[in-house]
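Project outcomes to date are best conveyed with an example. Our students and postdoctoral researchers have been running inverse folding experiments weekly, and each run begins with a structure described purely in tokens. The record below, which covers 185 residues, was selected by the lab manager from last quarter's runs and is presented without edits.
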């Protein structure tokens, strides 16, 4: 898994608590408390999920809720730091419609120990909703939902996310249907 996921996980937990809490999480999964992650390196998927589960336990939430909140945090980081790479005339709809392009470009080829998540498609349907198909052995669908929410927040818009198919419920892939409700004031 791409190192940026680990760096942002640490930042997320230090924002929620402090550096001591992060060290407790590392110790809780038998990793050295002096462990440093670099955003440009690749690390074990297993370590990532052990850290996520330990962090979720500390927050007293399920893995799914944790990943949603972490995805929101990570999405905010990306939007604040990489928004200049996105068309300045876009809003939530256009960015999500082109989500596959950015996903593939930033994350798609960044794994060394297992198949990365595959964003199969992102497009508008005839109703004007954005449909995004995702498949991955990692099953990080809640994280992706959190990212969608952070994109809408960045553009001061409200969205509704339906997930008619979900890998966590036995489907072969996740299907997200995003409806833009309105601009927030």
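After processing, the design step wrote out the following sequence:
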């Amino acid at each position: 898994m791409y190192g940026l996921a680990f760096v942002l996980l640490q930042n997320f937990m230090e924002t929620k608590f402090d550096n001591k809490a992060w060290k407790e999480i590392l110790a809780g999964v038998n990793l050295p408390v002096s462990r440093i992650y670099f955003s440009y390196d690749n690390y074990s998927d297993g370590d990532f999920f052990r850290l996520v589960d330990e962090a979720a336990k500390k927050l007293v939430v399920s893995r799914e809720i944790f990943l949603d909140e972490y995805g929101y945090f990570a999405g905010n980081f990306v939007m604040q730091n990489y928004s200049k790479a996105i068309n300045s005339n876009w809003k939530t709809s256009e960015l999500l419609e082109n989500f596959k392009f950015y996903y593939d470009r930033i994350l798609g080829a960044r794994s060394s120990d297992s198949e990365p998540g595959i964003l199969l498609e992102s497009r508008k349907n005839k109703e004007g909703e954005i449909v995004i198909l995702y498949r991955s052995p990692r099953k990080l669908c809640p994280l992706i939902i959190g990212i969608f929410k952070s994109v809408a927040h960045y553009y001061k818009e409200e969205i509704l996310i339906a997930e008619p198919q979900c890998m966590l419920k036995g489907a072969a892939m996740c299907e997200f249907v995003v409806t833009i409700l309105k601009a927030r004031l």
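The longest helix spans residues 63-82. Helices lie at 3-16, 19-28, 45-59, 63-82, 92-97, 99-108, 141-154. The training component of this project remains on track.
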